[in-house]
């Protein structure tokens, strides 16, 4: 739990250090309406001052205390903005040697030397940080006019403005930073979006006809709303930061909230074809004023609930998961299914089965056709049907895992064997309304049921078995990769005993289609051909080729 302190006490804690994993200063970046986070911040402080509020709250900071230094884990933008504000207010003794800007050396030098000499004029040689520092000073100056009592305002900021001061241990700093903001390499726009949304969506326009008591009530409501919105945002961040969520959506090195924000951008933005997703574009599109910010914060809340509902429902979880793992464009797929305005979309299962065999987003939703490669005809075929046919034909070959010389194929037959076996296991989970564990996508193994080392025992020269081999789809099952070593070169009965030995930790025991295979009493060329035939028959039926 944080300690409530005023700004005077905060700055007296020690020297603030902006660590290297933080991004640079960005609060003076302007939107299309020539507004920025620093202008809203200063305007809110001035409004609190004009209304003579006894207390005004500006959210929390999270820090590490170390040898008189205050390492800023969260709250760097606000702290730097306060530093720049006090510089403008000519309270330079109060901030002298108070900010160590480790992010960039030139930024540190300017803040602690040239800033204190009032060098605010922009220069074409300025680095990005210094440019934004100077812009912040200029924007502050435009809000606090010449007749404004700067000294009294400085005293108000020190004594009447409060924040929550959270101290954590040094060993938790990086993890806390990642939990709050995402990985350092991509710590760019999302925190700025959060800041602007919280400030603007909770800000109510000042009414000059309201008395001080009414204004106090309004400010109380603003702080209450801002806290509620911040809690919502933190809940979303916590959800997206869970390992199973990151693995499921394939967040990778993106900010944890990337897919929430980019999906909202894609389904809600106008004229987005000419704009890339960025803070400036998101801000100009959705956070131009308090009304739009509040509207779009609510839109994000509803979209987040849709994400959670899709994830928590076993059937949608399983088919969407299959799409996310196989789609050529996750963003397009998510936009297609999460856009409430799209009322004519195909079902998740239908989309997933075509994504599974490599069809693109547009091929799936548009039923794209192509001309048959025959100059004498004008026949056209559906591209996704052709791809499905080719994929099934590949896994129907005599050799799939390896060729007859135990060499790898250069085509995709082995990948399609994995994908089709994955599908069969997912469909079994659907029958039980159980969520499938998609960690197998990165931790996979295709296991030979009858071991390769004992293949000479089998006879595939018989006409009844000529279409089979030790490497055909009929002799393969899906396992979690870490379970592969438990089987080794064991024969079928030994593998079966291992599989059903509940005293052993064996993740693949949850793969229901794999279980059904090992439930057989014996495994010879007869069962291999039978399994191959039934698998291909099922796939043909699933893709409606019968």
UniProtKB/TrEMBL annotation:
One of its GO terms (molecular function) is endonuclease activity. Signal peptide: none annotated. It comes from the Bacteria. Keywords: Endonuclease, Hydrolase, Nuclease. Transmembrane segments: none annotated. Residues 9-197 form the GmrSD restriction endonucleases N-terminal domain. InterPro entries: GmrSD_C, GmrSD_N. It holds the Pfam family GmrSD_N. Residues 408-532 form the GmrSD restriction endonucleases C-terminal domain. This is DUF262 domain-containing HNH endonuclease family protein. The lineage of its organism: Bacteria, Pseudomonadati, Bacteroidota, Flavobacteriia, Flavobacteriales.
């Amino acid at each position: 739990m944080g300690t409530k302190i005023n700004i005077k006490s905060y700055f007296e804690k020690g020297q603030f250090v902006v660590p290297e994993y933080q991004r640079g200063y960005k609060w003076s970046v302007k939107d299309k309406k020539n507004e920025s986070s620093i202008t809203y911040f200063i305007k809110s402080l001035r409004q609190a001052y004009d209304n003579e509020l006894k207390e005004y709250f500006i959210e929390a900071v999270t820090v590490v205390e170390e040898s008189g230094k205050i390492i800023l884990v969260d709250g760097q933008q606000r702290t730097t903005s306060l530093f720049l504000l006090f510089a403008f207010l000519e309270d330079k003794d109060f901030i002298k040697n108070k900010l160590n800007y480790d992010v960039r050396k030139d930024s540190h030098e300017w803040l602690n030397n040239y800033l204190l000499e009032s060098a605010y004029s922009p220069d074409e040689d300025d680095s990005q940080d210094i440019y934004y520092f100077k812009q912040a000073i200029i924007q502050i100056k435009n809000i606090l006019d010449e007749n404004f009592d700067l000294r009294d305002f400085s005293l108000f900021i020190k004594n009447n403005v409060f924040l929550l001061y959270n101290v954590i241990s040094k060993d938790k700093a990086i993890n806390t930073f990642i939990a709050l903001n995402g990985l350092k390499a991509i710590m760019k726009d999302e925190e700025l979006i959060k800041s602007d949304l919280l400030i603007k969506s909770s800000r109510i326009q000042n009414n000059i006809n309201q008395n001080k008591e009414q204004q106090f009530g309004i400010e109380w409501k603003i702080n209450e709303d801002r806290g509620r919105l911040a809690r919502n945002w933190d809940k979303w961040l916590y959800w997206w930061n869970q390992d199973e969520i990151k693995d499921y959506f394939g967040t990778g090195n993106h900010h944890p909230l990337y897919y929430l924000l980019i999906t909202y951008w894609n389904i809600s933005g106008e004229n987005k074809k000419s704009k890339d997703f960025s803070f400036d574009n998101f801000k100009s599109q959705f956070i131009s004023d308090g009304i739009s910010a509040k509207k779009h914060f609510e839109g994000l809340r509803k979209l987040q609930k849709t994400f959670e509902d899709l994830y928590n429902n076993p059937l949608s979880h399983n088919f969407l998961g299959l799409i996310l793992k196989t789609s050529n464009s996750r963003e397009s797929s998510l936009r297609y299914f999460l856009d409430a305005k799209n009322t004519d979309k195909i079902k998740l299962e239908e989309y997933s089965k075509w994504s599974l065999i490599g069809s693109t987003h547009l091929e799936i939703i548009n039923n794209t056709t192509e001309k048959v490669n025959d100059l004498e005809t004008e026949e056209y075929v559906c591209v996704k049907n052709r791809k499905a046919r080719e994929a099934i034909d590949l896994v129907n070959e005599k050799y799939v895992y390896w060729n007859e010389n135990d060499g790898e194929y250069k085509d995709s037959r082995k990948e399609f064997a994995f994908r089709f076996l994955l599908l069969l296991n997912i469909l079994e989970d659907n029958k039980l309304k159980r969520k499938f564990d998609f960690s197998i996508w990165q931790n996979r193994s295709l296991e030979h049921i009858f071991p390769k080392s004992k293949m000479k025992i089998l006879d595939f020269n018989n006409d009844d078995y000529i279409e089979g081999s030790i490497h055909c789809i009929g002799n393969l099952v899906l396992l979690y990769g870490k379970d592969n070593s438990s089987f080794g070169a064991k024969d079928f009965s030994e593998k079966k005993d291992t599989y059903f030995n509940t005293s052993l930790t064996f993740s693949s025991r949850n793969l229901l289609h794999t279980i059904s295979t090992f439930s057989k009493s014996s495994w010879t060329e007869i069962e291999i051909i039978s399994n191959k035939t039934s698998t291909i028959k099922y796939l043909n039926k699933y893709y409606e080729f019968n």
